## 1
Amino acid sequence: MSAVRGGAAQGEAEALRQEEGGSRADSALEGGAARGVEEAWGRLPDGVGLAVYRIVQEALTNVVKHAAPARCRVSVVDDGVEVRIEVVDDGPGRRTLPGEGAGHGLIGMRERVMMYGGTFEAGTLPGRGFRVFAQLPYEEVS
């Protein structure tokens, strides 16, 4: 399954290059950031790695859909025992769009986290903004 992990990381890097027009993304990826990500990614069991990727993806989709224009901070920390994900935006805190149906993004994130016995929190911040936090425990792949 390491090919799936590598393929996902390569696909993510290519998408980043396309979205950023190749400038900042290329320099960050060529500057060694991608190597560190790949090393950490390789320690994660396949399912946990995919869950981390999808949780970050969905949280960022929610920022774009519901908080824009806003600034957003993404943190993914892997300490060898668990992965902690935090996505925080400074948007208006409203989470509905006129004419949009009810989505299942937060439910899907919660279900992914619960599959691995982790914890999940999502909610508005005092004053302004929204925070998604997930913690997924795992055993390192050898």
## 2
Amino acid sequence: MLNIDELVRGLMSSCGSGDFLEKVHSEVQNTIIDVAELGISNEELVKVLGVYALTQSLRLVKLNAAEQELNDSLSGEFINVIQCLVRALRGLSGECLIGNELLRRVLQYASSLINEVKEHCLQLTSSPP
């Protein structure tokens, strides 16, 4: 069973590396299946999607990539969540309008981790973690 705390620790220790992105992507898929088949709480899905969105955002910021350089397979509204997180990681303000209730909760959860991620992953020197 998924342990959100482990996933968050993995995010902090990897600072969004490609290997971690693959792991969290797999966890998203598994959690969606668990929600559908086992009826686990949507809250688990919210948290996994939040970590996934934050991982995607952190990679864009660290690569200094444009927000438009996102995977086309992601839904438009999920891309909006990632773009909001990128702006927050870059210290930019602005209102984020997300229409989907589940994705608003995803953004809210991911936003709760922003300061810790910024402090741990973006204040480091250019040496690898």
## 3
Amino acid sequence: MLKLGFSAALAVSFLAVPAFAGDDEGDDKPQYVYAKDAHRAAKLKLSDENKDARICVRQKQLGSRVRFQRICMPQEEWIAYVDSLEDMNREWNNAGKGLPPETEFVGPAGI
């Protein structure tokens, strides 16, 4: 009985797979390029054929020793992400020295 159920499940799984699964060269599947960290992803030199590729970075998941999270974005987004990290770092460093942030404070009139 168990063998019959297993063979029926196996037959159904073969029906679900397309006949020419590996021959889809015309498909526009997203290409992935892997980088070690966000800074390297922003500075990565991409060839013309991989210009639209998504760059993936593995980051450790907080609260776990073994789990990772894969983050994939286009290179323009990695550049913007790294720029925002550098701006935030610069603002935190200046706040410790008592310097105002680079943006001007817009408050109520008369102050």
## 4
Amino acid sequence: MGSSFFLDSNVILDFLLDRDPFNFSADEIFEKGYNKNIHIFFSSLTVANIHYLLRKQYGNDGAINKIAELFSFCKILPVTEKEILAAIKSGFSDFEEAIQYFTAIQNSEIKGIITRNLSVYKKSKIPVFFHLKASFLFSNKFH
């Protein structure tokens, strides 16, 4: 079994919307998750965010289907009052990313956050990885 990583919304959207040039790295991450080389986690807030953006391109049913496909190999972490309150008090420059961060750290299995937005995670207590350079994560160092 592989290591566990938390993905922020942009990485998931790069994969689902095939956003060039970010889609290539995102494809690799999701392929590793699908093949169970790594475990992928994201938040319940992410589900709502990606649905909103996916339905613009695929309609409601298409968006729901794409999200449902992810559930076959990704795990969803709940956003609770605890994560919201921690985000409010955190001093993070981006409130939504603060919620993502406090959701990620609730699970001790998670070895790091994979994102395109490194600058907002300056206060992170766990490693944060730029998703275009994430392929090194799949080496033996994290297994």
